Write a sequence for this structure.
């Protein structure tokens, strides 16, 4: 497989050092490459997906990926792409985040036995062992101040101010490349487009510290993802889209992808899925011919949910989507109710069998008893997807899903979750 050709056809290369040399290097031997992930939260989000999947693409092409968790650099903070100083976390917090991220990476990359099995490393291993004198004498001497000031990550922060802590970040990340080059024969670093300065600084350290020996090493970045409507990729009204199912449920994750704009969906299929370019071309024709069917979006949502979560999570997300579309709420389990109605208004009922009329008022579904009577009489009230026009109806066992939940719908789209203790 010509991995560089495939990446270029998918639009996945933003910049690389020595394209011809890298192509020969990849064609002639199994290459060890790495990408770093700083533990700034207890989960990765979909903004991290592109570089993670790049490691997977190289692995599928026969190369050996290293997923580097920044347990050391994560305690310093990367100034790249930021206009202000990061809030520093404690060592305990960073360690906890590191372990969580390592587990997430293991779900996407193949860490099983094999000649190109992925490996996980943590740069806390070598950065924590280094004294300040070692750092300044052995590494700092290779970096000129003017060279560092010229980097975008530093230059963009000069006016607002940047601490020495964050200023030194690129040197620490350069040390990662040096360590992995020496210990793992790692010759390629990849990352987001905002990491170009850090990657080239690592290459510079390799060359300057080689004492005249020839160094073969390369850098490659993926593009910054933008959405056609100008909004930030990976952000919704509810916040970031996380890979942790506890932070972003598989249903929410599925919905994010299925709501992709027609102008974005083909690009996202090329970026994020492992579908062949021929198959993506066929899906592009579907978008042009029958955009209302959203065939490409469904395929994107299927592939991504299955990849990040699993087949069962995908089926669950599809069941929730189908139930909401058809109104057949009773077909859902309690767990699916919690996922699908996570963000709707919720009312905790202390009564086990309240009168529907009273429940509508107490839960704030109807503004008054008079309004509640009108809503019920007009057929605007649905219990678990079924219209109910009985003014004397009491919520009974048959109205409670797993004896815990009732979904009330008022009108066409206003859902309310009733929880019973």
């Amino acid at each position: 497989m010509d991995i560089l050709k495939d990446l270029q056809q998918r639009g996945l290369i933003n910049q690389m050092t020595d394209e011809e040399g890298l192509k020969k290097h990849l064609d002639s031997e199994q290459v060890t490459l790495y990408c770093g992930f700083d533990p700034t939260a207890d989960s990765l989000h979909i903004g991290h997906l592109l570089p993670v999947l790049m490691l997977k693409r190289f692995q599928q092409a026969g190369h050996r990926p290293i997923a580097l968790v920044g347990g050391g650099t994560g305690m310093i903070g990367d100034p790249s792409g930021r206009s202000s100083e990061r809030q520093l976390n404690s060592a305990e917090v960073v360690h906890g985040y590191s372990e969580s991220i390592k587990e997430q990476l293991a779900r996407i990359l193949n860490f099983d036995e094999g000649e190109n099995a992925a490996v996980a490393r943590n740069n806390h291993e070598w950065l924590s062992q280094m004294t300040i004198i070692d750092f300044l004498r052995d590494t700092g001497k290779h970096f000129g101040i003017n060279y560092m000031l010229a980097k975008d990550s530093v230059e963009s922060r000069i006016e607002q101010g940047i601490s020495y802590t964050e200023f030194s970040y690129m040197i620490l990340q350069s040390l990662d490349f040096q360590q992995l080059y020496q210990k793992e024969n790692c010759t390629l670093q990849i990352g987001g487009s905002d990491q170009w300065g850090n990657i080239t600084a690592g290459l510079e350290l390799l060359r300057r510290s080689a004492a005249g020996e020839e160094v073969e090493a390369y850098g490659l970045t993926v593009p910054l993802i933008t959405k056609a409507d100008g909004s930030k990729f990976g952000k919704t009204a509810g916040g970031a889209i996380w890979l942790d199912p506890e932070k972003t449920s598989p249903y929410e994750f599925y919905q994010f992808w299925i709501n992709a704009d027609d102008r974005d969906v083909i690009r996202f299929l090329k970026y994020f899925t492992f579908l062949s370019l021929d198959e993506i071309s066929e899906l592009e024709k579907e978008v042009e011919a029958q955009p209302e069917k959203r065939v490409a979006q469904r395929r994107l949502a299927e592939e991504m949910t299955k990849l990040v979560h699993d087949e069962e999570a995908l089926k669950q997300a599809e069941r929730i989507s189908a139930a909401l579309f058809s109104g057949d709420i009773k077909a859902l389990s309690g767990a699916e109710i919690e996922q699908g109605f996570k963000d709707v208004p919720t009312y905790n009922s202390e009564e086990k069998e309240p009168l529907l009329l009273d429940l509508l008022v107490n839960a704030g579904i109807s503004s008054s008893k008079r309004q509640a009577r009108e809503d019920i009489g007009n057929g605007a009230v649905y219990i678990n997807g079924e219209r109910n026009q009985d003014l004397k109806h009491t919520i009974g066992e048959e109205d409670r899903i797993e004896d815990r939940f009732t979904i009330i719908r008022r009108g066409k789209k206003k859902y309310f979750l009733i929880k019973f203790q």
